[in-house]
Amino acid sequence: MKVLIINGPNINLIGKREIEIYGQISYDEIMNRCKKFAKDKGVLLDTFQSNSEGELVDRIQRSDFGFLIGNFGALTHYSYSIRDAILSVNKPFIEVHLSNIFKREEWRTRSILSDISIGVITGFGWYSYILALQYICEVKINA
Question: Which of 11, 112, 130, 131 could cross-link with 7 by S-S, CB 3.0 to 4.6 Å?
């Protein structure tokens, strides 16, 4: 089973920007922790980050994964091209956010992706990714 974690704009700056919101751990370290967790569970994990909406759509459309975990940053709130790409590949999708979007600005509380996801994990910092992986590894794959 292959899982893709895809990250949108500015996620590459995690650990450097707004540390009080997103934490001190770098993007690379978070992805390394995810890769170790997946490897320990016997799951192949691929990661991808881009600040370009088109590159994110192209990566989703490759459809070479069984499950998708996505943190699309601000695109979560308005990118219909990301939504359409996810729908077009017909793969299970989990929406992930490092911060609790419901404690943030009003515009961040609305996601155009939540209704097409298995579920939304928000507010657990870097561990939000691990929770999504754990669900996939322990509930979905072993079901």
Answer: 11
